[in-house]
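This is your field. Have a critical look at both lines of this record:
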Amino acid sequence: MHHFYYNANDLIFQTALFPLLPFPPYAIIVPMKYDPFQQEAIDYITGGHSVIVSAPTGAGKTVIAEHVINDCLKNNTRVIYTAPIKALSNQKFRDFQVPFKDKIGILTGDVSINPHAPVLIMTTEIFRNKVLEDSHDLEGYSWIIFDEIHYIDDFERGTVWEESLIFLPPHMKMLALSATIPNIDEFADWIHSIHKRPLKVVKEDSRPVPLHFFYQYQGSILDNLKKIRASFPTRPRSYYRRGRRTTAPAQHIKPNRLDTLIKDLEKNDRLPCIYFAFGRRRCEYLADEMIKFDFLSREEKEKISEVYRDLCARFDLSGEKSAAEMRPLIERGIAYHHAGMLPTLKEVIERLFTSRLIKVIFTTETFALGINMPARTVIFDELRKFYGRHFANLKTRDFYQMAGRAGRRGIDTEGFVFSRINPGRLSIKELVRIIYGEPEKVRSRFNASYATILNLYEKYGNDLYEIYTKSLHYFQEKKERRQKAVQLMHAKVDLLEEMGYIGKDGLTEKGKFASQIYGYELPLSEMYCSGYLEGLSVNDLAMLAVALVYEPRKGAHMPKLNKPASRLKHETDGLMARIHRKELRSGILTPSKPFFYHLTPSIAGWMNKEDFDEILRRTDTDEGEVIRYFRMAVQVLREIFDTPASDELKDRVHKAVSLINRDIIDAEKQLRIL
C-alpha cells in the first residue's frame, strides 16, 4: 500500500517557485510505502480502536495522524489535533494548510481562524478547558490527536494532558503520539482502566535513519567512548581557575574549539547541522563566531539573499534591526533561532532552513519540538539544561528528542550526533547514562488548578474527590502520595469555600467567574467581586493583564513606574500578600502567581500607539518575549470577556484587546501570510 507522505526533506527548490516561496515550505507530497509500525497503527485505527504510538523522533508518526485526518474528512466527521505549545500549533496549521487547505482551523487563545473547521488544531489547554466547561462543543468531533503526549510528564503543564485524558468524551477516539518511553504499556493500561474502550499500543524502537555518535573531547573528535573513558578524570578535584569553580585539573583540560568541529563537518560532508545551545545569548554568540565561515556558493548566495529579502518584505521585517543584523549570517548559510526573537523572523528562518541553504543553525531546544526540520548533523553545546527551577544533566528522553533531528529520511544513510564534552562539568557515568541509558518513564504531574476544581465541583459536588482515583497519579503512586494529593484537593476546596467561591448551593458568582480563568483565578476573581476591576480604565486593564502573565528572568530590570501604575502595583501587592497568607495557612505550598510590573512602561507606550521599536527601549526583555507576553495578556483579557462580567467592563476589555492586538502582536496576521 502507498500513501502521500509530507516530507520536508525532499524540498529541492530548483524551479521558478523557489525564489518566491508562495506557500509555507514545510512539506510536499511524495508517494512512499508505509513502514510496518505505521501500517500496524493504521490497521488498528481502521478497526475502530484508539491507538497510542511510541516511536523515535523522525520515525514518521505524523503520517498516522494524517491518515486519521484524511479518514475523518472522507467520512464527513471532524477531528481535533492538539499540540503542547502555541508555536507548534501554529506550525502544524501552516503545515496542514498545504494538503487540507480550507478544511483546517486553529484555536489557541490568541488566535482563532476558521474555528468550526472539520480539522481543528488547538493547544492542549484549550481542549482541556472545553472538556471541563462545555463538552457539547465537541459532539461533532470523532477523533482527538494528542501530539507529544509525553508532555504529561512536564512539571508545570503536565496536569493539562492528564485532565484532558481523564475527561475525554466517550464518543471520541484517540490517537496519541509520543517519543520513545519505556512505560508506554503502563500508560495505556491507565487509559483503559478509566475509559474501558478498545485501545492498542504500537511501539517502534528503530529509526529509519540510524544515528552515529561522536564526541569532541580535549580538543579531539572521537567516535569511540572507550577512548574518552580511558582519559577521563577518575577522581576530579575541586579547584578555582580565573575565579570559577571546576572539578578537573587545569592541565588536563584542552579547549574544544568550535571552528575545528565545524571544519570537520564541512570536510566530511556532514552539513547541514543543527547546533543546540541552551541559552539565547549563547546561540547568538556562537553564530557570530561563525561569521568567518562562508558555506554558500555564489549561486546559493544569490538565491538565499533573494528569498530572505522577499520573506522579510512579506512579513514586514524589511525595516527591523534584528532582521538586518541576521542578514550577514544568512548570506553565509548561518542563522540562529530562539524564543527571544520576533516570531515573524523565526518563521522566516524556519522557511529558509527547509530550503537547505542554511548550513548551520544555532538554536535552543524548542526547535526539536517543531515540525519535521531535520539536518544531517546535530551538535550539543553541552549536556546540561535548565529544567524549570534548576540546571541538571539532560534526561535521556530529551537528548533523543533533539538528537532525533539528525538524519534526513530519503537523503541520508545515517545521522551524526556530536556532543561537546567538558570533563570539568560532566562525569563519565552521566555521559554514558544520557546517551546509552533507557529513556525515563513518564510520571504523573497531576495538580488540579482552582478553575479545574471549581468546574468539577459544579458537576460533581463533593464527589469530585472520586475523580482523583481516575488520575495517572493515583494509578502510579503508593498510598502515602495518594493521600497527599487528596489532602491538597481538600485544602483547595476548603480555601475556595472560605473565600466565598463555593456556597451551600454550589458555585457563587465569584466561583463562576473564577471557573473560567485558568491559572489566575484568585487575584482576578477577588478584584472582580470587590468591584476593583470595574473601576479600571482601558489602559489599567492592559497593564494589569501584562503584569499578571509576566515572569521576570534572572536579573530583569524593574523600571520606575508612574503614579497610576504605582497605585495599581500597591493594590495588587497587597492583594497577593493576603492570598498567599491564606494559601500558606491552608497548606497550599505552590502559591498563586504574583504580579510583576517590569513591562508596564512598554505596554503603556504600546497602548498609546507607539512603534514597537520605541517600546523596546523601555525594557530589557527580548523582543520575542515582549510579543509573547502581550499575546498572553490578550488571552487573559479574552477570558475575562467570556465571564459573567458587566457589559461596561466587557466593553473596556474589548477596547484593551483591540489596542494591544495590533501589528506585530497580532498572531493571526502572521498565520494568514502565505
